[in-house]
Amino acid sequence: MSAARSPLALAALVALALAAFAGNSLLARVALRDGGMDAASFTALRLVSGALVLWALVSLRRAPAARGSGDWISALALFAYAALFSLAYVQLEAGAGALLLFGAVQATMIGRGLAAGERLARWQWLGLLVALAGLVGLLLPGLSAPPPLPSLLMLGAGVAWGAYSLRGRGALDPLRTTAGNFLRTLPMAALFLLALLSQLQVDTPGLLAALASGALASGVGYAIWYTALPSLRRASAATLQLAVPLIVAVAGVLWLGEPATLRLLLAGAAILGGVALVLRAGKPAT
After folding, report:
1. In Å, how far are 28, 94, 133 from 266, measured between CA atoms?
2. What pLDDT digit, counting tens, does each position of 212-258 carry?
3. Staple partner for 27: which of 62, 92, 213, 230, CB 3.0–4.6 Å?
4. From the CA atom positions of the chain, what is the Rg in Å?
5. In 10 A of CB 246, how many CB atoms?
6. Tell me, what's the pLDDT at 195?
7. DSSP class per residue in 217-272
8. Residue 48 near residue 209, CB atoms below 8 Å
9. Stretch 129-154: mean pLDDT, rounded?
10. Is residue 40 a contact partner of residue 199, using CB atoms and an 8 Å limit?
C-alpha cells in the first residue's frame, strides 16, 4: 500500500509528522518554562496519554499483529529521554533545546555506527566536525548561551532517544513496539512523581499541553510517521528530520517571542548543515 501512496499524500504525512515532533518541544516549553507545570507531572501525563493513544491505534488496526511489543531496556531509554527532556525545558528556550536534543541524537547514532565499524567518507568527517563545532559553539559560556545544567540534561535526553531509536531498528511492527514501550514507562513515571512529590504542581494550561504532547505530538505523531516511513528511503527519512529543530526555532521566535540570537543562528546552521552532510555524503551513518 505504501508504494501506491501519491507524492502529495506522502508529503502531507511527512509534514504532519515533523510538525508533531516539533510540537513536543513547543508544548514542553509553554508548560514548563512559562506555565505552572512541574517536570515530573508533565512527563507522567505525556507518557500516560501517549500510551493510551498508541494502544488505541494499535487496537483499531485490522492488520495482523507482528511479533514484539517492546522491552524493558527500550522503555528505560524512552523514559530517560522523556524525564530529562522535561527537566531541561524548565529553563531552556525551545529553539536551543531542540538543537541540543537533535545534535545529541544524531551524534549518538553516528557514534554507534562508527563503533560498529562503519566508515565515513572525507566529506562525512568534515560534516561531523562542523556539527560538533556547532554544538560546542552553542554551549560556550556567554550572555546568549543556554544555561549549562539544563543543556547537559537535554544532551542526555538526546543520547537516550538515540539509544532508543537504535534499539528499535528492524522492529517488525514499530507502532505496536512503541506502544508497548510507552506502557512499560508508566511504573517509572510513577516513581519519578514520588521522587519529586514536593515539587508537584499542575495548572490547566500545563495539563492541556502535557496531554497534547503525549496524545497528539507523540501518539498520533509517531503513528503518522510510521505510516509514511515505508515509502521513504532511510537517508531521506533521516534528512527530513533536520527540519524539526528549524520548525521549533522559527515557531519559538514567532509564537513564543524567543530571541533569534546570532549564536543560535550560527550554531543551528553548523549543526544542521554538518549532520546533513554526514547523511547525504556517501553511505548514510544513520
Report:
1. 24, 16, 10
2. 999 999 999 988 888 887 777 665 666 677 788 888 888 888 888 88
3. 213
4. 18
5. 17
6. 93
7. IIIIHHHHHHHHGGGS-HHHHHHHTTHHHHHHHHHHHHTS-----HHHHHHHHHHH
8. no
9. 81
10. yes
- At which residue does the C-alpha cell 548561551 appear? 145
Which residue bears the cell 549549562?
148
Dig out the grid coordinates for 16 from the structure. 504532519
**Beta carbons of 45 and 32 less than 8 angstroms apart:** no
Asked if 274 contacts 131 with a C-beta cutoff of 8 angstroms, the reply is yes
Contact 135, 67 (CB under 8 A): no
> What is the number of residues in the chain?
286
Compute the distance between CA of residue 190 and CA of residue 28 in angstroms, rounded to an integer.
Answer: 19
Cell of 247: 520548525
Residue where the block lists cell 550572555: 143
Exposed/middle/buried for residue 243 (C-beta within 10 Å: 0-12, 13-18, 19+):
middle
What own/partner pairs with CB < 8 Å and gap ≥ 24 does 162-167 have?
162/104, 162/105, 162/106, 162/107, 162/108, 162/109, 162/112, 163/77, 163/108, 164/74, 164/77, 164/78, 164/81, 165/105, 165/109, 166/108, 166/109, 166/112, 167/71, 167/73, 167/74, 167/77
Amino acid making up residue 135 = L
Task: Say what the pTM is.
Answer: 0.85
- Listed in sequence order, the residues at least 6 apart from 254 whose beta carbon sits closer than 8 Å to its beta carbon are none
Amino acid at 235: A
- The C-alpha torsion from 139 through 140 and 144 to 146, rounded to 10°, is 30
What span, in angstroms and rounded, lies between the C-alpha atoms of 208 and 3? 37
Distances (CA, A) of 52 to 2, 58, 218: 26, 10, 11
The residue type of 71 is D
139-143, Cβ contacts within 8 angstroms, sequence gap of 24 or more = 139/100, 142/263
